[in-house]
Amino acid sequence: MKKIVLIFGLFIAACAHIPAQSVVKLGIDVLRERNFDALEGKRVGLVTNPTGVDRFLKSTVDILFEAENVALVALYGPEHGVRGDVRAGDKIADAKDEKTGIPVFSLYGSTRKPTREMLEGIDVLVYDIQDIGCRSYTYISTMGLVMEACAEYGIEFVVLDRPNPLGGEKVEGCLTEDGNISFVSQFKIPYVYGLTCGELAMMLNEEGMLSRKCNLTVVPMEGWERSMNFTQTGLHWILTSPHVPEAASSHFYVTTGILGELNVVSIGVGYTLPFQLVATDSIQAEVLANRLNNLSLSGVHFRPIYIKPYYSVGKDMDYQGVQIHITDYKEVALSDIQFYIMQEIYDMNPKYDFFKLAPSRIRMWNLVCGADYIYNEFSKGYRFENIKEYWYKDNEAFREKSQKYYLYK
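The chain above was modelled as a monomer; its predicted structure follows.
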């Protein structure tokens, strides 16, 4: 018996040295603890999708619908829809939510900015969507357009804040420039902007990035820190779209998403590793992996991989290339990786001219990059060193400007 007690005591002592996992309270959790004070006595509209859940995975739709002092009267769906039943890029029609019977208005069809009719009778519009911290992901574009509509029609706007899965420290990519403003680069912010959606909303509102300033309230999280990766939050990841099934997928989205716009190589979309690889039928995996590893890029390792995509680019074809392994997240420059991969593939096979293979996709490349300069200079021999300074030219100024909107240390 004494031996059992001793062993148990040693176990407890050992556990005392294991750091407790942080548990972040989301904006919806904080709002509920405040008894929905920001919404009481008002007619509420909610912009959300399946990622809008509390830390126990209950939908924000259902939480607000069941709250006795909240009158939830309308839902608004971005890309993929309120309940996540729409495929990427598919247009969404207005409908009714089957579970609650509440009208659902589409913000990813012919109308991306709510109209007066869609907002009729609404006093406050709530936004609760998990973003992935990259400018080209369309949820923040929806948020900004909704903020403009709220300003135009005198409606309050409330953001229920959530973690940035890329953290609050990484900033990469030049600001979007005139001529390249689009739904995939809606604002003049870097490609990786290092803010939560609540912080970004504050910056858009105060820095004149919207057509009009709205009456904005951000319900902040509790327990989140800028240095956190998503696994440290204690929260469950809900796929933000079909090809971002895990929190780490948001990291890889940044490593290959720009390259993927050209549709000339597989980036793992259509295979089991979306955004985590680059493969084609025109290169040797071992050679490419060795070339990339010989660059000694910080925080990343490249491993040869052989795949046969199930759909999308390379469907049913034998492809080979590299899988991207992030070995040190704090050190890695995520967005640089795709440019280096293109550089090395071109050096291995100069006939593999990405832009000549996909001339119809150059405009989309420019929109996602946010600047014509990247294409104009990178296409002259595919050397990342020719664009690196330009790619990072705005970062320090943006960091300095954005710090005044930090809600978290």
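The longest strand covers residues 300-307.
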